[in-house]
Amino acid sequence: MKYYEITFRIEGDAGIMQDARDLLAALAGETGFETFEEVEDGLKGYVQTELFDENALKDVIADFPFEDVGINYEIAEAEYRDWNEQWEQEGFEPIIVDDRCVIHDGRHLPEKLPEGAIEVEIDAKLAFGTGNHETTRTIVSQLLNTDLKSKSVLDCGCGTGILGIVALRCGASHVVGYDIDEWSADNARHNAIINRVDDRYTSLLGDSKVLQNIEEQFDIVVANINRNILLNDMEVFVAKMKEGATLVLSGFYESDVKILTDKAISLGLKPAIKRTDGNWAMLCFSLPLR
Description:
Blueprint: E1 2-11, H1 17-29, E2 35-39, E3 42-48, H2 54-62, E4 70-79, H3 80-90, E5 95-97, E6 101-104, E7 118-121, H4 134-144, E8 152-156, H5 162-169, E9 174-179, H6 182-194, E10 201-205, E11 218-224, H7 227-239, E12 241-253, H8 257-266, E13 270-277, E14 280-286
Helix pairs in contact: 4-5, 7-8
């Protein structure tokens, strides 16, 4: 799968740089961009080559609502494997979440495992999805504080499979994860194997449409995806929730909380928990018993 890497240079007052980044990411996300990375003078965005609509992007920039802000961009091709080659070779240092979960790459092991902590090994093909990112850590922490014994879990946009694997380590009965990226779906399956939970982990390739072929409803649904996909797919998530089930969302900025909460409430969900880490946020909702 091929991607374009678009480097956006934002010119304007330094005091509004972060707001300009956030707004640009939201608007570009509506044109097909999947993920973003902040850089000193702007933003990098990644979009599949087949989905890139430059005319739509030009319209976003031309209609950008901040006065006295200029945006220029450069386009470069990027192969998925090339993005992460150095990361894959070097691995990552152990990540400890709440002194209750240690995430490592199998090569860089913790000097000492906290007493009673679960251990998860991730052979990461990409940095996002190891626990390094704020949104992943926040959801892992939430899972650690949730009663998952014998619960079924759906992981939407599973990436490395880390969230589903943590859920299984915490007592979940089984997990179904799906991802639109074939490398992620394969990597999640591989990580389930090395953590010896593959008999309870199903990894599927595709977007939320793959759920049309699954009759099961779940106790816990987690989705660590960008705001626009969450808004688009939330109705599908709710349809896969049992009564009394929990929906855990992250992958978005704190400024996106209201629009996501409003959408959830419109679908009959009840707000339960909000957590933040830096500019990133996580929301939990419950589906009331009828």
